[in-house]
Specification:
- By secondary structure, this protein is of the alpha/beta class.
- Helices cover about 35% and strands about 15% of the residues.
- Strands 3-2-1-4-5 form a five-stranded mixed β-sheet, covered by helices on one side.
- The protein starts with 9 loop residues before the first helix and ends in a 7-residue tail after the last strand.
């Protein structure tokens, strides 16, 4: 074969093969990233908390039990919706049965009437909760 001439079969074969290994590597890395970040994005029930100076923070280091009262009047224990105010006591007693610490935090939306918040606080206290904390957030600067 002379210089400058090509063999007839070599030109088509080099372009017809695509290496998918880098593509698979990138997809696996993205899969791992989404698997790690997905649990962090689960925030729970959306409520607009009251903003106060020096708002009390949830204690870090242990998983708090949070009772939430949203704007529509729905009550949640953790992330489970409770059918009504009369069911809060039995649900809390069931959840707190396996815990040493009977501390509960109450999140109530800023626009919920105060009377409903007090009724929920009374239902929580009747269930045997020793310590009840209110959750608020500090105003943004």
């Amino acid at each position: 074969m002379e210089v400058g001439q090509r063999s007839s079969g070599s030109t088509g074969s080099s372009l017809s093969q695509i290496n998918v290994t880098p593509f698979v590597d990138v997809m696996l890395v993205l899969l791992v990233i989404f698997m790690v970040t997905a649990p962090m994005m689960d925030k729970g029930v959306e409520v607009e908390l009251p903003q106060v100076e020096q708002a009390p923070n949830l204690e870090s280091g242990k998983e708090p039990l949070i009772v939430t009262l949203d704007r529509a009047g729905n009550i949640f224990v953790g992330k489970s919706k409770v059918s009504g105010l009369d069911q809060v006591g039995p649900v809390l007693q069931q959840v707190l049965k396996g815990r040493k610490d009977t501390e509960v935090y109450l999140e109530a939306d800023n626009l919920v009437p105060y009377g409903k918040v007090v009724q929920l606080m009374a239902a929580i206290k009747k269930s045997g909760v020793e310590r009840l904390g209110m959750v608020a957030e500090e105003p943004s600067p």
